Amino acid sequence: MNTRIYMLDVGASAKEAGIDEEQIISWASGLSEHRQEKIKKMKFLEDKLLSLGAGVLLDLGLQEWGLSEGTAAFSYKGNGKPYLRDYPDRYFNLSHSGHLVMAAFSDHEIGCDVERVQSGKLKVAHRFFTEKEQAYLADPFLSEAERDALFVRLWTLKESVLKVTGEGMRMALNSFEITLSDPVQVSLGKEYSFLEYEMAGYRAAVCGKGEGSALSDVFFSFQKLQDVVR
């Protein structure tokens, strides 16, 4: 499975970095009109940067297939998941959280999720996680910080499954179970496999759907937005 993973840091504060709306619009000028209009309609600079980053990563990934974000034709499946209308056997997925944007590309169905580690999420776990997943978090030997990180690890793994299936929240998070083995497994079957990444204050996961094989031939890139757009 040929897989490419891109991570982009858009910066925690646009104002501190001296970035204004005019600069963001200028950087977006090479992207599709749809992306440019989406960026313009957003109220906050940080949201504009995240949308710009998503467009930039989508363009970077499509270039490896000889395509571009500005000219590729996109359509949506019945579940709302976007796909390349003229290349249905090429797959991509996007995610963002905090000031990080993530994109995954593959020749198999793929889903990705990145999340910032935050505290106070155990009530969410009781609502959306299985008993086994909650038991991981109930380990008395975990520190509060380790528990927070483990929650986000489980969350990104489960979200990546939802996104590879395209079901989103229509598929209940507790309707399937993540087993933190080596390799990580999901109760939906062996055709699903995972990649995981850990950055300062963030966790990310990628789920690939294939014929019983792990994600392989993986290219990974982590860059800062201003190094890509200048």
Uncertain segments of ≥5 residues (pLDDT<50)?
Answer: none
H/E series, N to C?
EHHHEEEEEHHHEEEEEH
Please give the alpha-carbon distance between the first and last residues: 32 Å
**CATH architecture tag:** Alpha-Beta Complex
Q: In CATH, what is the class?
A: Alpha Beta
Number of helices: 7
Beta-strand portion reads 25-35%
Spatial extent as radius of gyration: 18 Å
Main structural class: alpha+beta
Instruction: Give me the side-by-side strand order of the main sheet.
Output: 4-5-1-11
The CATH H-level homologous superfamily: 4'-phosphopantetheinyl transferase domain
Characterize the biggest β-sheet.
4 strands, mixed
Description:
The chain is α+β, with helices and mostly antiparallel strands. The chain has seven helices and eleven strands. The chain has a single domain (3-229), classed as 4'-phosphopantetheinyl transferase domain (Ribosomal Protein L22, Chain A, Alpha-Beta Complex), CATH 3.90.470.20. Helix 2 (33-41) packs antiparallel against helix 3 (45-63). The longest helix has 22 residues, at 144-165. The chain starts with a strand and ends with a helix. The mean pLDDT is 92.
Describe the SSE topology:
Layout: E1 3-9, H1 21-27, H2 33-41, H3 45-63, E2 74-76, E3 82-84, E4 91-97, E5 100-106, E6 109-116, H4 122-128, H5 131-137, H6 144-165, E7 178-179, E8 185-186, E9 192-199, E10 202-209, E11 218-224, H7 225-229
Parallel strand pairs: 1-11
Antiparallel strand pairs: 1-5, 2-3, 4-5, 6-10, 7-8, 9-10
Helix pairs in contact: 2-3
